[in-house]
Amino acid sequence: MSILCGSESIINPLQKSSLNKKGLCDYVINVASGCLHSCVFCYVPSTPVIRTRTAHLKNQGVEDPQMDWGKYLFIRDNLVEQLERQLSGKKTWSETPAGRGVVLLCSGTDPYQNGQTAAITRAAVETLLKYNKRVRILTRSPLWTKDLDLLVHPDVTVGMSIPYLDDELSRRIEPGAPPPSVRLKALQQGKKAGCRLYVAIAPTPPTMDYESFLGHLETLLTLEPEVMFWEPINARGSNGKRMMAAGLDFVQSIMKHQDWAKNFVNQWKMIEYAADCLGCRSRLHIWTDSGLKNYVDSKLLEYWWYKPTFEHWVTSYPVTQSPNHPSIR
Ligand code: SF4
């Protein structure tokens, strides 16, 4: 399928979210359906966001919304006006201890993947700040640096996904996204401007070893991110098939659930060792997975679910950080 772009309407762009489970937010806004960054591991097409809209997307000309992920983008061009309507009529606001009432842009697409999404994102952030909401941006594109005048704000944090700094590997895994070296430069620019920053070391391929984690954390720490989220690649749903189709040999080593879980635990140990070695364990935030139930102590999984991050939001919830995080080891 060739690239298909268009627009669509949205009624309620501001949606409650369960991503407080990952310490990310209580609400999400997605500025588009689809994502041209085409990450082959992307789990979004396997989620209800796309699965429940299969018929609609087929009507729009998308032959296979899961396997064609990365080849379609429908911009929500009425989003800002609808967001204004929602916020102006909103009487209550959810603020969980881990979600902190934050609004994430985006959970199911990249907010800064091109000029059109960037324009909607900027206007959405302006609207959210007008209503005194906290905002978390998550992107793989440096386009956000054009909005530093807006994003350098105590109620905004900007994060980029940088699982590794290997541009060549990135071309095979995230073929439509700007390479990690460009993302690093964008974060350096944001730091210089005084922007609040975080990093998602996600998802890491099973080829990463202890030395890679150590070197990677060392580089990322120069950005002084408030938090560094981590999770490894998983090969569930259609993303396993898409990674195989992209010729990523390492996928074979995590296709079986047991192998995926073992790799998860091994890399978890490695990144914790590396963080301890560099004295940054308190900034490391593990995104655990319910599929680890038979492989990891349930108390450890519970520790990480719904855990507030180390970030410094001005919040009514006291953030209690254990000086010694429980260890996977
Ligand atoms: S940038 Fe995010 S939403 Fe877009 S394809 Fe990559 S992982 Fe999926």
Written description of the protein model:
The chain has 329 residues and is of the alpha/beta class. The protein has a single domain (4-304), classed as pyruvate-formate lyase- activating enzyme. It is 34% helix and 14% strand. It is built from 11 helices and 11 strands. An 8-stranded mixed sheet has the order 2-3-6-7-8-9-10-11, with helices on one face. A 3-stranded mixed sheet has the order 1-5-4, with helices on one face. β6 (103-105), α4 and β7 form a beta-alpha-beta unit. α3 (79-88) packs parallel to α4 (115-130). 44% of the residues are buried. Iron/sulfur cluster binds at residues 35, 37-39, 42, 44, 109-110, 140, 177.
Q: State the order of secondary-structure elements, H for helix, E for strand.
A: EEEEHHEHEHEHEHHEHEHHEH
Number of domains: 1
Biggest sheet features: 8 strands, mixed
The CATH architecture name reads Alpha-Beta Horseshoe
Number of strands: 11
